[in-house]
């Protein structure tokens, strides 16, 4: 131990995965073929959503999702500072304004209270949407957000990139899978290799709205369609009905996604075993994300907080444990600092969290021995530094 690098997250590629890709490479379709539809159908079923649209990455998914939800230039949208920049950037792609509301200091998720305060501090109609994030894999309780959004006529786009397979229980004790479209208008998932399902690059948008679904299909593929045409010159004919993009995924990536998706439930279970061992080891000694029991955490990350975070980060890296920081608050990135839409909003929870957070290795193939080494290394650091 100590020589091999232990990253904070990594993909798991099996022989079945490889065979699925090879089979598709030898088939008639490398793209726009049956594997994409199969992946969409199976993914929609897995999160209990009506529709799913596969895309080339989650950032593209976020872009066409905000467009399908009707975001226009100048529209204002609220999101959390503790997320990957793409959750906010998608609003900027169409010239919208990004406003940040602070996180809950215990769960690290966008605070419902703070979101409500921000909305109520402005005239009616000021905001158009909310982008909550299932940060670290902890499903955000969307029921309250949905009530708030309905009161103010806002849409909700759930950034579920960290949470495929996670769910929370709503007030009726119903299991609400992340991205199931009950309390959000659409949701986005990522298939980047550090996420649960690895396609190399890839993403999925889910929704229960047929209207949003149809818009997503158009926007994914140049705005071109053979359906609902105003005229038809023959078998070759198509119409470009809106300005769209080429945000398609390939069939061989979809084949990999299908194969990976089949193992995700087990992967989430493994991640929860790893989380339990961390919690048992750190309970009462180190602060970590408060994890409510009324949900299944998909555990993309396991985040702890320490006062001497930079020292711990360097110490872990010296020991080949490549812990990572999630995230630098988005409002503090130079691009957003320059724009500074709501620079007077109190985001001190996010800033305080950022000064202490560090994400530990968390992926299904992390061995008990490797995790033991991670825990021992952190404990050795803590006893030296206290
Ligand atoms: C990874 C991630 C994205 C972007 O995903 P890509 O597939 O790399 O574009 C967006 N939001 C969050 C919260 C993420 O973690």
Description of the structure:
This is UDP-4-amino-4, 6-dideoxy-N-acetyl-beta-L-altrosamine transaminase. Belongs to the DegT/DnrJ/EryC1 family. Helix content is 38%, strand content 15%. By secondary structure, it is of the alpha/beta class. A seven-stranded mixed beta sheet has the order 2-10-9-6-5-3-4, with helices on both faces. Strands 8-7-14 form a three-stranded antiparallel beta sheet, with no helix packed on it. Strands 13-15-17 form a three-stranded antiparallel beta sheet. Helix 3 crosses helix 4. It binds pyridoxal-5'-phosphate. Pyridoxal-5'-phosphate is lined by residues 57-59, 83-84, 86-87, 133, 159, 161-162, 190, 192, 203.
Quick structural summary:
The protein is of the alpha/beta class and 386 residues long.
Q: What is the count of structural domains? A: 1
Low-confidence stretches: none
Tell me the span between the first and last alpha carbons: 25 Å
What level of helicity do the residues show? Answer: 25-40%
Q: How would you write the strand order of the largest sheet?
A: 2-10-9-6-5-3-4
Rg calculated over all Cα atoms? 21 Å
The topology string of helices and strands comes to EHHEHEHEHEHEEEEEHEEHHEEEHEHHEH
As for the CATH topology, it is Aspartate Aminotransferase, domain 2
Please report which band the strand proportion falls in: under 5%, 5-15%, 15-25%, 25-35%, 35-45% or over 45%.
Answer: 5-15%
What's the tally of helices? 13
Q: What is the CATH C level class, in words?
A: Alpha Beta
Mean residue pLDDT:
97
The class by helix and strand makeup works out as: alpha/beta
**How many β-strand stretches?**
17
Largest sheet composition:
7 strands, mixed
- Identify the CATH architecture: 3-Layer(aba) Sandwich
Shape: globular
What binds here, in terms of ligands, is: pyridoxal-5'-phosphate
Let me know the CATH homologous superfamily: Type I PLP-dependent aspartate aminotransferase-like (Major domain)
């Amino acid at each position: 131990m100590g020589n091999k690098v232990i990253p904070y997250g990594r993909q798991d590629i099996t022989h079945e995965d490889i065979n699925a890709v090879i089979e598709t490479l030898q088939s008639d379709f490398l793209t726009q073929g049956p594997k994409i539809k199969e992946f969409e159908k199976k993914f929609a079923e897995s999160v209990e959503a009506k529709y799913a649209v596969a895309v080339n990455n989650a950032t593209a998914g976020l872009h066409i999702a905000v467009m399908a939800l009707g975001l226009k230039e100048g529209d204002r949208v609220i999101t959390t500072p503790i997320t990957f920049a793409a959750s906010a950037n998608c609003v900027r792609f169409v010239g919208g304004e990004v406003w940040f509301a602070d996180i809950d200091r215990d769960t690290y998720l966008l605070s419902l209270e703070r979101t409500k305060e921000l909305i109520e501090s402005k005239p009616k109609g000021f905001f158009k949407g909310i982008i909550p994030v299932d940060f670290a894999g902890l499903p955000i309780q969307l029921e309250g957000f949905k009530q708030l959004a309905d009161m103010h006529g806002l849409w909700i786009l759930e950034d579920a990139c960290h949470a495929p397979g996670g769910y929370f229980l709503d007030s009726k004790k119903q299991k609400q899978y992340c991205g199931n479209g009950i309390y959000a208008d659409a949701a986005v998932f990522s298939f980047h290799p550090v996420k649960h399902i690895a396609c190399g690059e890839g993403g999925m948008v889910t929704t229960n709205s047929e209207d949003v679904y149809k818009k997503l299909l158009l926007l994914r593929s140049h705005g071109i369609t053979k359906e609902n045409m105003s005229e038809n010159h023959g078998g070759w004919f198509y119409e470009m009905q809106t300005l769209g993009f080429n945000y398609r995924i390939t069939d061989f990536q979809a084949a990999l996604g299908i194969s990976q998706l089949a193992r995700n439930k087990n992967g989430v279970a493994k991640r929860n075993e790893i989380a339990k061992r961390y919690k048992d080891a750190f309970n009462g000694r180190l602060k970590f994300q408060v994890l409510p029991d009324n949900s299944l955490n998909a555990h993309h990350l396991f985040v702890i907080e320490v006062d001497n975070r930079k020292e711990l980060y360097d110490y872990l890296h010296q020991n080949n444990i490549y812990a990572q920081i999630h995230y630098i608050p988005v409002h503090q990135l130079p691009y957003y600092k320059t724009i500074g839409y709501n620079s007077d909003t109190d985001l001190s929870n996010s800033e305080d969290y950022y000064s202490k957070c560090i994400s530990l290795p968390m992926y299904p193939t992390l061995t008990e021995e490797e995790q033991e080494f991670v825990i021992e290394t952190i404990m050795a650091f803590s006893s030296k530094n206290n």
